[in-house]
Amino acid sequence: MANVYEAVIGLEVHAQLSTETKIFCSCQARVESGKTEIPANSNTCPICAGHPGILPVLNKKVVEYAIKAGLATGCEISLVNIFARKNYFYPDLPKGYQISQYENPICENGFLEIITKDGIKKKINIQRIHMEEDAGKNVHLAEFSLVNLNRAGVPLIEIVSGPDMRSAEEAGVYLRGLHAILTYLDICDGNMQEGNFRCDANISIRPRGAKEFGTRTEIKNVNSFRFVEKALDYEIKRQTDVVQSGQKVILETRTYDSGRGITLSLRTKEEAHDYRYFPEPDLIPLQISQELVEEIKNVLPELPSQKKERFAKDFGLSSYDASVLTSSKNLALFFEKAVRKLVLKGWNILDASKPMANFLTGEVARLLNDENIEINQSKLQIDHIVDVVTAVKDGLLSSTGAKQVIAMAWKNGDSVSIIIDREGLRQVSDNNILEQIVEKIIANYPVQMTQYLSCKEKILGFLVGQAMKESAGKANPVVIQDLFMKKLKGDHNASS
Predict the structure, then answer these.
(1) N or C: which end of the chain has fewer CB within 10 A?
(2) Residues 363-374: pLDDT tens digits?
(3) pTM of the model as a whole
C-alpha cells in the first residue's frame, strides 16, 4: 500500500555567510567557534539589537557572496534588489521584524543536478536565493527563558528549492551537493553543528501520478544530513499511515527527535503566515551592475562538478570514487595533497591515486559518516594515509591491518609505524618463514592437495586461507599464494 503514495519534498536552506561583519552593522559576524562562544549579548550594537531610530547599512561582501551562490547554481542574477520587512513577533527579534527580501530576491530560477546511488540524474529547481539577517537565540530553562542577541544580524542566504524531490535519498543528495558548492565557494563554512548550514524540510504525500499536492508539514532546523533523511523517511511513513487510516494530515510545524528517531508536533498552522511584507524604508533599492556580476563570475573557483570531471580524467578514478572525494572540499584537498606526496616519492600518479581513493572512499568515509565531521576536524593526517598506502605496497601491512591502523590513527593520532609495532600488525613476507607454513599446510591437508593437483584450482584459495590462519593473519597472502603455486607445480611435475 505504501507504494500507492509518493512524497513531495522541498527544502529551505539557511546558510550563514562567512563575512567578517554582520549584514547591516560593523559587529563581528562570527559568534562562536567549536566549543568557544563569546559572552551572551556582548557582540551587539544598537542596529542589531533593534533600538528605535537605527539605520542599517548593507554589507557589500554579503551581496558578492550571494551573487557567487547564484552563479554557481545557474541562477539569474537580479540587478535591482528590494529589501523588505518581514513582520512577526518573537523574543529574539527585538525590532519586531526581520529585514529580508520578498518580491525581488537577488537570485532566481537556478538548479542543482543530483545523481542518486542508482545513477539516476535529476535536476532540482532552485526557485530563489535571497539575503536576510539572522535572529537572535532563545535559551529555554526550566522556569524562564533568556535571549542572546549575538547572532542577531548575522548575514544569511536562504536557498529555496522547488517541490521536486520524491525521496529522502534525493533530499540528502541535494543537501550534500548544495553544502559542497557553498564550501567550495568559501562563502559558508558549512558547520551544521553550529547552525551555520541548517535546513527546513516541507513534505507531503499524494497518490502516485496525481498532480495536486497533499497537505504539507514542515520539519524545522535539522542539523545533519543523516537526520534530514531519517526525519523525512519517518514523516513519509507517518503521513502514509495517517491517510490509510482514513484521517487527514494537518498543516503543522514539526521537529525531529534524533534520540527516538521520530518527528514531533511543535505547533499547528490554521493558515499560512501573513508576514505583512513591505519594502524596507531605511534601505534604498540595491542596483547591481552587470560588470560586477561578470567580474565575480570570472573569479569563481573550481566547483564540485568540475573537480569531479578533473579527478576522473587526471587520476583515472571511477565516477563513484570521484563523486565521493569531491563531495567535500576538505576531503578533495586531502586526497590531492596525499597523492602529490606519493608522486614526490617516485610513484606513478595512477598507481598512487587508486589505493588512496580506495582508503578514503572506504574506511575513512565510514569514519567520517559515523561521527558526522569533516576530515580536517579529525586526528587523521595526510601522512597517516600516505604511510598506510606505502606500507601496503611494501608488504608491511595487509589490507585488514591497514584498516586497523587507520582506525587507531583516527582515534589517537599516533604514527603508522608506532601503531604497527605496538599492535603487532607487521605483515610477514620472509620466504624462509612462510615456506615452513606452506609445507605444514601441505602436510596437514593431503586430500585437498590431491584435489588441487587434479586441476581443481579453487582449492588454492582454501589452502591460502589455512596458511593465513596458521600465521594469525600476519602472512603476506600474495607471497603465500606464490609459494603454494611454486611448491605444488614442482610436486605435480615430479609426479608426472
Answers:
(1) C
(2) 999 999 888 888
(3) 0.85
